[in-house]
């Protein structure tokens, strides 16, 4: 009798286990879908939180917030920059380069370590960017040597060679088909050769009309492995101003998502237009990781701790916010009940910026 009872119990246990396994199988499939839906909900809730916070501040409030974060120069934190002034290695004497995050050229083979460039992080990448000044005639070799040693695969150039009649950047990259440029520093030579004729990028969306030219080059010299680099030249971003607040920057950053090496970003001084791009990428990083988007004043201060005085004007600061509000509307994340508030925000933005 005991044996029969044990058999019955054993059968019931097996049936129960089988039913539990079936439930688990059902549950696991459901859980995957639920998790995905939950992730979307979490992401959406964090984005909506940022949107509401931004709209509540208003463009005038953001302008006041920016003006409270005064630009400063602590020369004690930029000793290498001060020393390099005497060597003519700095484009602007009032645009410093912080020692703590400074990019250092490798000695040897190079005979000096200084270049006006800083590593700048995003939440998931401690060396996402190298923010630098536009190359000068006597720093072109330094610039390309830095690219070689840091294996830079992407360069964003956000200025033109001349703007409003002033020299803003030396012609450090080939602009004509099959052209090769050679730069020298001491006994070292670095060559930069174009591999394909430059092409104008096409962006998604009829309203996105940014003029960005892509040139692919091969860099060689200084005993380093040859390097293939994509050079993106944003032609129509005005000095100390802003382009239309469309998705061009975000699309450009998405095109370069695959690189695991630092991306070089420069305008003329390497802080205004450059800082705007870095700030947008910092926020994209937080969105992709599904964490809260920090207050933008805190984000800017973190960037400035790495690249001094990043984001030069209140227009640039406002621009970063307007880009994101437009982007979230395009993605369909904007709640219907606050669309009117966005319209009001955008009108105020255009009055202040355009």
UniProtKB/TrEMBL annotation:
InterPro entries (alphabetical): Oocyte-zygote_transition_reg, Prot-tyrosine_phosphatase-like, PTP_cat, Tyr_Pase_AS, Tyr_Pase_cat, Tyr_Pase_dom
Tyrosine specific protein phosphatases domain span: 247-318
Entries under Gene3D superfamilies matching the protein: Protein tyrosine phosphatase superfamily
Biased composition (Basic and acidic residues): 20-30
Single GO term (MF): protein tyrosine phosphatase activity
Species this protein is from: Caenorhabditis auriculariae
PROSITE patterns in alphabetical order: TYR_PHOSPHATASE_1, TYR_PHOSPHATASE_2, TYR_PHOSPHATASE_PTP
Region (Disordered): 1-30
Name listed for the protein in its UniProt record: Protein-tyrosine phosphatase
Domain Tyrosine-protein phosphatase: residue ranges: 62-327
Superkingdom field: Eukaryota
């Amino acid at each position: 009798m005991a044996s029969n009872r044990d058999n019955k119990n054993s059968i019931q246990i097996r049936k129960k286990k089988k039913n539990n396994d079936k439930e688990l199988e059902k549950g696991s499939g459901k859980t995957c879908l639920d998790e995905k839906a939950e992730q979307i909900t979490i992401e959406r809730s964090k984005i909506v939180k940022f949107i509401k916070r931004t709209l509540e501040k208003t463009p005038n409030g953001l302008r006041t917030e920016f003006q409270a974060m005064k630009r400063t120069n602590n020369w004690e934190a930029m000793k290498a920059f001060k020393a390099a002034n005497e060597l003519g290695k700095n484009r602007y004497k009032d645009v410093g380069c912080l020692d703590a995050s400074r990019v250092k050229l490798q000695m040897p083979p190079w005979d000096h370590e200084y270049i006006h460039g800083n590593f700048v992080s995003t939440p998931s990448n401690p060396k996402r960017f190298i923010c630098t000044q536009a190359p000068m005639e006597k720093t072109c070799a330094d610039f390309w040597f830095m690219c070689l040693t840091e294996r830079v695969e992407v360069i964003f150039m956000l200025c033109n060679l001349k703007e409003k009649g002033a020299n803003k950047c030396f012609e450090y990259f080939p602009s004509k088909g099959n052209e090769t440029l050679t730069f020298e520093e001491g006994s070292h030579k670095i060559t930069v050769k174009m591999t394909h004729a430059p092409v104008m990028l096409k962006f998604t969306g009829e309203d996105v009309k940014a003029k960005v030219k892509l040139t692919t080059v091969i860099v060689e010299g200084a005993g380093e492995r040859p390097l293939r680099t994509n050079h993106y030249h944003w032609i129509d971003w005005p000095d100390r101003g802003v382009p239309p607040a469309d998705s061009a920057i975000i699309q450009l950053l998405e095109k370069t998502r695959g690189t695991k090496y630092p991306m070089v970003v420069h305008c003329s001084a390497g802080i205004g237009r450059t800082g705007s791009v870095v700030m947008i990428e910092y926020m994209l990083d937080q969105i992709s990781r599904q964490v809260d988007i920090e207050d933008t004043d805190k984000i800017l201060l973190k960037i400035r701790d790495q690249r001094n005085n990043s984001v030069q004007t209140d227009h640039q600061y406002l621009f970063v916010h307007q880009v994101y509000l437009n982007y979230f509307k395009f993605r369909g994340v904007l709640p219907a009940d606050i669309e009117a508030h966005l319209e009001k925000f955008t009108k105020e933005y255009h009055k202040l910026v355009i």
